[in-house]
Specification:
This protein has 102 residues and is α+β, with helices and mostly antiparallel strands. The chain has one domain. A hairpin with a 4-residue loop joins strand 6 and strand 7. The longest helix is centred in the middle third of the chain and has 10 residues. The radius of gyration is 13 Å and the shape is globular.
Amino acid sequence: MINIRTLKKLNNNDGLTLKNGKIITYKSGWQVATEGIETTDIVEAMKAVKAYNGNCGIWFSDGIWYIDKSRRVSTKREALELGRACNQISILKWATMGLVYC
């Protein structure tokens, strides 16, 4: 499982994805957040990572950690449907590391 030091090392607008507490990247598919928290408290951010069993996305921007329970799906269609159902702004395309708006 990652630790607070890992969260502290994130630069502004930096992020990572975890699977079972380990940093992971994929070559294909889509990552979609299903729920999450926003916090300026690094301890609270770490608690959220643990609450999601290390299966989440982490984004740091302007002093705020965004911790999202997320999952990988194969198709853009499925990702968009899930993203819209979960009121997400965007989904991540692993192949390009680009965002597609829902």
